[in-house]
Each structure stands twice: as C-alpha cells, then as structure tokens.
Specification:
By secondary structure, the protein is mainly alpha-helical. The protein has helices spanning about 5-25, 40-55, 60-75, 80-90, 100-120, 125-145, 145-165, 165-170, 175-185, 190-195, 195-210, 215-225, 240-250, 250-265, 275-285, 290-295, 300-305, and strands at about 230-235, 235-240. Among the domains are: about 40-90; about 100-175; about 255-295, no CATH class. Helix 5 packs across helix 8 (about 165-170).
C-alpha cells in the first residue's frame, strides 16, 4: 500500500465526513409524495361517472361531473371524500331535474337491478297490466259468486301492487332486501318464467344462492311447496310455499348470495373467502345493504386508482 502524508489522509477523511453529513441533512422524514396526487383527472372523472351509473342508473350531468371531480381532488381522493359522495347519491333528497332526487333514483336503481336478477327485468307497465287483469278477474269472480277465485285473484293483484311499491318501501326503510327477494320470487311473473314446482325450487336456489339444491334439499323443498309436507331447511321448518319462500330469503345462504351478487355487480368478480367471511360478520348481522355497497365503492379496486 502506498504511503501518503498524514495531512492528505486527514483532508480526505474530513471531506468524507462532510459528504456523509450533507447526505443526512437532505433526508426529510415522512415526505413521500401522496399516492393520490399522481392520479390523473381522467381517472377521477371515470370514478364519478361509474358511481352515478351504478347507483343512479345514469351518467352525471356536466355540472355534476365538474363539481364532484373538483370536490374529490380538493380532498386528495380521501376515503372520507369518496364516502361523502356515495352518501350524497344514496341519501340526498334535494329535488333535481330528471331524478326528482338522488335518493329516489338510487332506490329505483336497486329495484330495477333486483327485477333483472329475478324476473328478467319485467317493466312496471307489464306489472301494472297484470295487476289490472287480476283486479278484473277478481271483480268477475265476485259478481259470479266464486269466493275462492275472488280471493286468489285479489292475492295476485295485491302481489303486483306490492312489487310496484318496492321503491317507496326501500326509501321509507320499511322494506328490506330480504323482503324484495321474497316478493320477486313469489309472484305470477316468476311462475311464468319457472313453470311447475320442479323448476320453481331449482330457480329459487339458483337465483338466491347462485347454486342448485342438493338432492336432499330439493326433495325437502319440493315436498313443502307441492304437497304442504313439513320439512326443515337451514334450521327452519316450513310446510307450504309461503313458508318455503320466507325461510329461503331469510337464510344465511341468501345473505351470502346477496353479497356475491353485489360483488359481481360492482366488481365483476366473486368475493374471496376472506371477504365473504368478513361480510357475513357485517352484512350478515345488520342487513345494511347500502353499507355493504359502500364498503366496495370506496375501494381503490372499484375506483381503479
């Protein structure tokens, strides 16, 4: 090794130390650039657009798009700002052109999606037509003295009316998603689509649970609906069609099916096992459908951030 004078060695050492101190002084703790600052406006606008479509069934007006995008960006796309927008679209009662209010449009949207799920999206005009036919049939039976026919056709008419009143019930908080599901699988439209008890039982399992019944489940359900034979499914006993509908729509399996339906509707995928377990602890306990949606709508996965 070469022999250098002590003065040169000391000078080099001093320079090295000074350089290290300079580097240390340039380190600023907790000064990472916020991740959301890097998200372009077009992605924020796409998020706003998607929320309006999924929750209200329409795209935002230009004024709505500009206002909501600016609001989200001003709050740096925080989860709180996203939740505030979602709450606004779900709950705001301000009168607006086209919607009457956001909250009315939101509940109508849920109603329309539920009709697509269970009764092939039958129109309200179609339901009103069936209501009018049933009412006329009931009147004819009354005039002819056919009491049994009158009661049957009055029941048909009332069921159509109950379905048409779903949006109002959802808004008022008097109708739950389980109630909606029960109404939409127990009516003549569903029966026309799924004729006879064999198809009805299979369709109920498939539409509510996204699976078909086991042989044992099918036989138990078939006996309940077709022959009024008491049986037990999911820990609940019933012995007729109304009882079968109630036990099906209020079961934990139905709650799992609703969770799966929401994930598929909003994320185009099934929930993972961990997500399903967590949601069964939340939605499975409180039945809060809006909260279930909200937990998905605020995520980066949904927003594509």
């Amino acid at each position: 090794m070469a022999n250098y004078p002590k003065t040169i060695i000391c000078l080099l050492f001093a320079v090295f130390i000074a350089g290290c101190k300079k580097d240390e002084q340039e380190i600023i703790v907790d000064n990472n650039a916020p991740y959301y600052d890097q998200i372009p406006s077009v992605k924020v606008r796409n998020y706003v657009n998607r929320l309006f479509i999924d929750l209200l069934g329409r795209e935002p007006l230009d004024t709505e798009m500009d206002a909501e995008t600016a609001s989200l960006q001003a709050e740096k796309l925080s989860l709180a700002s996203r939740e505030a927008l979602i709450n606004k679209l779900m709950q705001d009662e301000t009168l607006r052109d086209g919607d009457t209010s956001y909250t009315l449009a939101y509940h109508k949207r849920l109603y329309e999606l539920s009709k697509i799920r269970f009764v092939e999206g039958v129109s309200d005009d179609g339901l009103r037509g069936l209501y009018n036919i049933a009412r006329q049939d009931a009147l004819s039976d009354s005039l002819s003295g056919d009491l049994a026919g009158y009661e049957l056709n009055t029941l048909r008419a009332n069921r159509m009316l109950q379905i048409l009143n779903i949006p109002a019930g959802l808004m008022a908080g008097t109708t739950t998603v389980a109630n909606v599901n029960a109404l939409l699988i127990d009516n003549e439209v569903y029966d026309i689509i799924n004729m006879n008890t064999f198809n009805f039982v299979n369709a109920c399992f498939d539409d509510l649970f996204f699976r078909f019944p086991t042989q044992a489940e099918f036989q138990m359900a078939y006996n309940m609906v077709e022959d009024n034979i008491p049986g037990t499914l999911f820990g609940v006993t019933a012995q007729d069609r109304p009882g079968f509908v109630q036990l099906m729509t209020n079961s934990n399996e139905a709650k799992s099916g609703t969770i799966q339906w929401v994930y598929n509707t909003l994320l185009a995928r099934n929930p993972s096992s961990a997500e399903m377990d967590l949601e069964l602890q939340r939605f499975g306990q409180d039945g809060d459908f809006a909260a279930l949606q909200k937990r998905i709508l605020v995520t980066n996965e949904y927003a594509n951030f």
